[in-house]
Write a structure and sequence with these properties.
Order of helices and strands: HEHEEHEHHEEEHHEHEEHEEHEHHEH
InterPro entries: CARBOXYPEPT_ZN_1, M14A-like_propep, M14A_act_pep, Peptidase_M14
Radius of gyration: 21 Å
Keywords: Carboxypeptidase, Disulfide bond, Hydrolase, Metal-binding, Metalloprotease, Protease, Signal, Zinc
Strand content: 15-25%
CATH superfamily of the largest domain: Zn peptidases
Pfam families: Peptidase_M14, Propep_M14
Bound molecules: zinc ion
CATH topology of the largest domain: Aminopeptidase
Cofactor: Zn(2+)
CATH class of the largest domain: Alpha Beta
Shape: globular
GO molecular function: metallocarboxypeptidase activity; zinc ion binding
Distance between the termini: 60 Å
């Protein structure tokens, strides 16, 4: 009994030291005209307002988290610009607590083969252990290597899945570039497992293409969202920067740091902003490592898939301009086929289109660079579940349904290369 009490006290104090979001509110806001749109665009450059979803075009909603001290000012702004808004979460901390309680409560059934399962979310160490375990169990198909170290000296894993041979096309997959989007590594690790453990059920997906999969390309940030002294809603990497006004801040948005039309809109020069684009293109060691790993296989790679959440979008380049790529029809048609299969599983609706036209301009993205910089023709950003009911705190019970439906889309993508 004493031990139980001690353990629960320890657990409570551990939980208490994560960054808290008491009184933070999540607003869903819809700009109706250019003036209100511009006002939101200016807010997105500030470190005060946290845009959980990227700003969209006029008439479409965006989710913005507002700290308690700014709620009344924010509401005044909404009235001043006649913007439609509603409060989606009256207290973000309550939602974080509920998600954590559910995660703790999930019972582990039987004795799983690997260090991760897909009825729960796992930290970076568990994911690394899983990768090494599945490679050891399937040395004929799986090779693990490190593409380099992070700022905090973690190895960044690359999983190659191949049945050998030469002349095959390849698909590059990554996840976890934005730390708080936990469903992303939860899908990408599941994809590795599905391709390898269930190989016999669908050998064509491994026999016909090689896969280069990086499940977590922002390991420092991802681990920080799990750490007991961390921040569940952290997005960027963890390298300090000059900040603003002489006050240093931490973290660069790696998905604004890639070097194809870098810093051409939709990113911030404010080191405290969640969309800080870094001091230069590829200023961050993690984006450099990803760049070099992709360039090493760029001659073979025909497809790049990068997994995010949330919003349910299957997006093509470009993010830096509203001009469409010359092969947009091909990119779009394939995405439509993929999403049709995805939706057929559980009815989940995805929006398809180019990043800039579905959302808003955002330069320095990995998908733009994969296509424009590395020359990989089929490049997509997939924003998975949900549409903001839970947002980044997608309940663990939705991991498997999410993964099953997205897998149907990925299969269509892969088949296009056979
Ligand atoms: Zn993201």
């Amino acid at each position: 009994m004493k031990l139980l009490i001690l353990l629960s006290v320890l657990a409570a104090s551990a939980i208490a030291s994560q960054k808290r979001y008491d009184g933070y509110q999540l607003f869903q806001v819809t700009p109706k005209d250019a003036a209100s749109y511009d006002a939101l665009a200016r807010l997105s450059d500030s470190e005060i307002y946290d845009f959980w979803t990227d700003l969209r075009t006029i008439g479409h909603s965006t989710d913005i988290m507002v700290p308690p001290a700014y709620v009344s000012l924010f509401v005044d702004l909404m009235y001043a610009y006649s913007m439609e808004y509603r409060v989606k979460m009256v207290d973000v901390q309550t939602v974080l607590d509920m998600a954590r309680d559910e995660q703790v409560a999930v019972p582990r059934v039987g004795s799983p083969r690997y260090s991760v399962t897909w009825d729960n979310y796992y930290d970076f160490n568990a994911i690394t252990a899983f990768i090494n375990e599945i490679a050891a169990a399937h040395p004929d198909k799986v090779t693990v290597s490190s593409i380099g170290k992070t700022f905090e000296n973690r190895d960044m894993p690359l999983v190659k899945i191949s049945t050998g041979g030469t002349g095959k096309k390849a698909i590059v997959v990554d996840g976890g570039i934005h730390a708080r989007e936990w469903i992303s590594p939860a899908f990408v690790t599941w994809l590795i497992n599905e391709l390898v453990e269930n190989y016999a059920a669908h050998p064509q997906y491994v026999d016909n293409v090689d896969w280069y999969i990086m499940p977590v390309i922002n390991p420092d940030g991802y681990q920080f969202t799990h750490d007991t002294n961390g921040d569940r809603l952290w997005r960027k990497n963890r390298k300090p920067n000059a900040g603003i006004g002489g006050i240093p801040c931490i973290g660069t948005d790696m998905n604004r740091n890639f070097g194809f039309h870098w810093n051409e809109g939709g990113s911030s020069a404010n080191g405290c902003s969640d969309t800080f684009h870094g001091g230069a293109a590829f200023s961050e060691i993690e984006s450099q490592n990803v760049r070099d790993a992709i360039l090493a296989v760029a001659g073979q790679a025909e497809m790049y898939l990068t997994f995010h959440s949330y919003g349910q979008y299957w997006l093509t380049p470009w993010g830096y301009t509203s001009t469409l790529p010359s092969d947009y029809t091909q990119l779009y048609t394939l995405a439509v086929s993929a999403v049709n299969k995805l939706t057929a599983v559980y009815g989940t609706q995805y929006t398809i289109g180019s990043s800039t036209n579905v959302l808003y301009v955002a330069s320095g993205g990995s998908d733009d660079w994969a296509k424009g910089g590395a020359g990989i023709p089929f490049s997509y950003t997939v924003e998975m579940r949900d549409e903001g009911t839970f947002g980044f705190q997608l309940p663990a019970r939705q991991i498997l349904p999410n993964n099953e439906e997205v897998w149907e889309g990925v299969k269509v993508m892969a088949e296009s290369l056979f």
